[in-house]
Fold:
Amino acid sequence: MTRGADPMKPALVHDVGLELHALGGPWAQRLRAAQQAGFVQVTLRLDDVIPQGGAEVCAAQLRSHGLRGNALLAPLDFEGAPPSAQRYRLDNAKDTLTLCRALGSSTLIVPASPYAAQVEPEAVRRDLRRLALLAVPLRLRIAYAASPSCADELQVWERVCDAEMPNLGLALNLANWLRVGQPVEDLEMLDPDWLYWVGVADLLPADGAEAASVWPGYGAHTPTLAAALSALHALGYRGHYSLGSDDPCTRLLAPATCAQRAMQAAQWLGNDVLKRSVPLPRHLRLRRPA
Structure:
């Protein structure tokens, strides 16, 4: 007789990842919390990886917990760098790309450089193309992201379009989209084939300061966030989502508690927003396989 699924084990989520830096506590506890909550992929930051002893150690730890890194976030400040800093930035970019490959991640998320606002668009285009070319031999994708120096997601998207590289796309952070008050309708300007990473988070009410992001469904903009996700789905986006939070209070909680709240957000995304039917245990998917 075939043994049925263990009801005490979580359903695995294959299409929604967890931003691991959103959890507090030691690295091993965060990995265990993500695994026990039912996640199989995580988004990493460079400052997650370096203290653990490098990419090989991190990759082994991820595998031992049944996890994989879907993307690595690394601020390179590459495009538009002055001539005096270009060699240093270039070496950093090469080392980071190699590290990303060693982790087993296919996507490197690169926030827009503050230098880019100080140079001509042609210089930004040239450097983004150069970065994308460096990633080709490693079979990596570059996901260009908004940053404090360039918070406008559509401006970042324009730079991606201007560079015209087959492995250069957009990292779309919906919390940032909400924070700057971008209309949901403007998402129609994006091409879903060039969306390499979509971060999903809600926002707390702003009290004169920049609003902190929290797990989807826990903030003040849940209806707008749901509308944005539905708009992306209608646009044809069928890629992965990554759940995050940068609220300092979240990191003070036990990693297991945070991971469980993230899983509730994943279920909200799949069941309430994308209207997926409930699948068999341990086979939760938010999109159909290609």
